[in-house]
Amino acid sequence: MKSPITGKEMELRKEEREIEFRKEPFKVVFHYYYCKDSKEQFTDTVLDELNMNQLYNQYRKKHNLPFPEEIIAIREKYDLPANKMSEVLGFGINSYRNYEAGEVPSASNGKLIQLAADPMYFKKLLELCEDCDEKVKTKTLKLIEDLIEKSKSDDFAFEEHLLDGKLPDEYTGYRKSNFNKFKEMVVYFTEQLQPWKTQLNKLLFYADFLNYSRTGYSISGVPYRAIDMGPVPNNFNSLFEYISEKDHVDVWFTEFPNGAIGEQFKPHGKRKFDAGLFDLHELKAMKDVVVNFKNKSTKDLIEISHKEKAWLENEKKKELISYRYAFDLIHVHLKLKKV
Fold it and tell me: Beta partners for 42?
């Protein structure tokens, strides 16, 4: 970004700052451009969004309020447009749309949205809605019954178990863990690079953390743990095994001269990556990781990940890695621009 004062390119800087929101202080990694000549600081819409997302996410977590992605997912689960969803909840349409766009809801509205995630509770709200169209009511009630049955399925329960049902916090990148997105990330990197398992672990880590460094959110909501070989998705062996068993990717086993067994991920039949699950920021983060690491070997990626603060400060106790370490990544570029 060029300085509005001198017209020269400015330096992107970051520092920890305390910012107040709704009369409460929170610490964020504040990003800004610095004009060396005038010593003035500037931000643009991209940096403003990144800074504010960090602030809002901490407030939501502290007060157990739903995140925008959760609010949208709850509505889409019932196949309702925003205006119909606002009718059922009893909100003004503008207020509801603002919540989906990122505005932090009040405590009472936030709790009501969270309760609506339960099909049984939402069914009661729908039945009590006097302003709702009867055709919409009938259609949605049928869908709710289907959702209740689906929730009893073994696959649904097992996928929730694999991800530990973790709610948004600093270890999920302030996303609710999303098995479908994680699965598609595995499919994407498999299509692009046919990686070995250790390579895949690093690609997933860098994609999730790179997206957080640019937006304040991870892609998949999956936590990562620091182990000897570098950062890995928590419970990665079980996740990969399940994804392979469901024929989303193939895993080929190779025995090396030293007796070690390697696992390489390869595309399965006509199974293609579903880009529709991701926004433009997420797709760009994944693409940037492919471009950055496409010529790196397994050994290279291990050595690279071992230089990251995220691994260095958590490896000794094999701890989960806070996504705040995303702002300290040294092997991928932030590229904070509109997409």
Answer: 33
Q: Which two structure tokens, joined as six digits, stand for 83?
A: 């205006």
Task: Tell me the per-residue pLDDT of 167-222, one tens digit each, with 9 for 90 and over.
Answer: 899 999 999 899 999 999 999 999 999 999 999 999 999 999 999 999 999 999 99
Cα(301)–Cα(272) distance, integer angstroms: 26
Comparing CA positions, the residue from 186, 160, 170 lying closest to residue 218 is: 170
In the DSSP assignment, the letter for residue 174 is: S
Query: Whose CA is closest to 301, among 211, 208, 197?
Result: 197
233 backbone dihedrals φ, ψ, rounded to 5°: -60, 135
**Three-state SS for 313?**
coil
φ/ψ of residue 32, rounded to 5: -160, 165
Residue 315 DSSP one-character state: T
Residues pairing with 30 in the sheet = 15
Q: For tokens 């889409």, what's the residue?
A: 76
Of 162, 94, 148, 153, the closest CA to residue 117 belongs to 148
Model pLDDT, residue 333: 74
| Separation of alpha carbons 217 and 282, rounded Å | 10
Structure tokens at 6: 């001198």
Whose tokens are 């959702």? That residue is 147
Q: How far apart are CA 335 and CA 315, in angstroms?
A: 28
- The alpha carbon dihedral of 34, 39, 45, 47 has a sign of positive
Q: Which tokens hold the place of 225?
A: 């743990």
Residue 78 near residue 63, CB atoms below 8 Å: no
232, HSE (Cβ side, Cα atoms, 13 Å):
17
Sheet with 11-21, strands from edge to edge, namely: 11-21, 24-35, 40-42
The encoded tokens of residue 32 equal 């800004």
The residue-averaged pLDDT of 58-77 equals 95
Beta strands in the chain (DSSP E): 11-21, 24-35, 40-42, 224-227, 230-233, 249-255, 261-267
Question: Which of 38, 33, 37, 35 lies closest to 51 in space, CA to CA?
Answer: 33
User: CB burial class (10 A; 0-12, 13-18, 19+) of residue 76?
Assistant: exposed
